[in-house]
Amino acid sequence: MKIKKEDLLNRITINPDVMVGKPTIRGLRITVEHILQAMASGVSVEDILADYPELENEDIQAVLLYAAELVNEEKVFSIH
Known about the structure:
By secondary structure, the chain is mainly alpha-helical. It has helices at 5-9, 32-40, 45-51, 57-73, and strands spanning 12-13, 24-25.
């Protein structure tokens, strides 16, 4: 079953009282940044889910979609 983009993005929450306002997953004390850094370091999704049993596969999808949306909005200027 495919999850809607909006439903995935709703899993990413920002609360100034949780992790200094960094984007987190479902209000948990697990930041988007932490998951992205783990994945960039070669940690597999399976290992992340094993290390954080409160996470779901859809949370990982939400992190990746959130990052993709941020990059999509980025403006790139060429300097020549």
